[in-house]
Amino acid sequence: MRVVDAEKVAVVSAALPDGDTIGELAQVFGLLSDPGRLRVITALLEGGEMCVCDIAAACGNSESAVSHALRLLRANRVVRVRRAGRMAYYRLDDSHVRMLLDLALAHIGHGEDAE
Amino acid sequence: MRVVDAEKVAVVSAALPDGDTIGELAQVFGLLSDPGRLRVITALLEGGEMCVCDIAAACGNSESAVSHALRLLRANRVVRVRRAGRMAYYRLDDSHVRMLLDLALAHIGHGEDAE
DNA sequence: TGCTCATATGAGCAGTGCTTCAGATATCGC
DNA sequence: GCGATATCTGAAGCACTGCTCATATGAGCA
Question: SS in 3 state form for B27-54?
């Protein structure tokens, strides 16, 4: 493997986050890399707390797909459930998500939020 | 499709970003959802400007894989090239990336950055 | 000009992830 | 308890993505 600035490479290489951290980062961004989940998240940003069927209706996805999406988001502490009888009400459980979306929107040029 | 709160669904549905915006958001996050690209980005965060072979050496990836990664990042205005002879020096071209990484690190619990 | 090095590109393959379909779990009303 | 409803889960099919290998472009150098 070729190297031009060996010292810099050593410094940079040592400063890189460990594999676990990189993996977790990739997983978090992976959660946001799917249009279906993104719609779910933006819907919850708008609606606050919603049940599964309403989320599905608002997003235009099937209830099963939304349930799968919510399962992933729940496992990564992005959303929270509140169960009331046979209904399940979901809400965002992470203040960073909105900021992540705003930053990404700023990057792609759209200055305004989904709000 | 079942709906509980039809009015809320209508409001939320109308407030969702359009399909193009959702797609672009997903694409941006998708760029950050790969450990290989993440290593490239964190290396550039540390090293500032580096040539392809040094990036590859620092990340522990093949030069071809890094070149493919840089191609994607370049197409999405995340990195910038400066060509000098047969060398190609890459640097980050987006101030949002560092903030996105910091937010994601905050989400997964690690308070500190890759810095 | 011909050769070598640094990078870029294209094709092919393997792994991953999303969606749908079918069935399971749990709650409500009778 | 029984049936209906709301959500969840698992398996199969499918597309997408990233890797490697091979090759192309392009610059430096003899």
Answer: HHHHHCCCHHHHHHHHHHHHHCEEEHHH
A69 lies within 8 A of chain B by CB? no
Nucleotide nearest to A30 (CA to C1'): C17
**A20-30 pLDDT, tens digit each:** 999 999 999 99
Q: How confident is the model at residue A51 (pLDDT cuts 50, 70, 90)?
A: very high
A9 chain-B contacts, CB cut-off 8 A: 54, 57-58
CATH class for the region spanning B35-115: mainly alpha
Amino acid identity for residue A114 in this structure: A
- Tell me: the pLDDT tens digits for B24-74? 999 999 999 999 999 999 999 999 999 999 999 999 999 999 999 999 999
Judging contacts by C-beta atoms under 8 Å, the chain B residues touching residue A28 are: 104, 107-108
Residue B65 and residue B50: Cα distance in Å, rounded?
16
Cα torsion for B39, B40, B42, B45, to the nearest 10°?
170
Domain boundaries, chain B: 35-115
> Selecting from 3.30.450.40, 1.10.3720.10, 1.10.10.10, 3.40.50.300, what CATH number does the domain A6-108 have?
1.10.10.10
Answer whether A25 sits within 8 Å of B103, measured CB to CB: no
pTM (2 decimals)?
Answer: 0.88
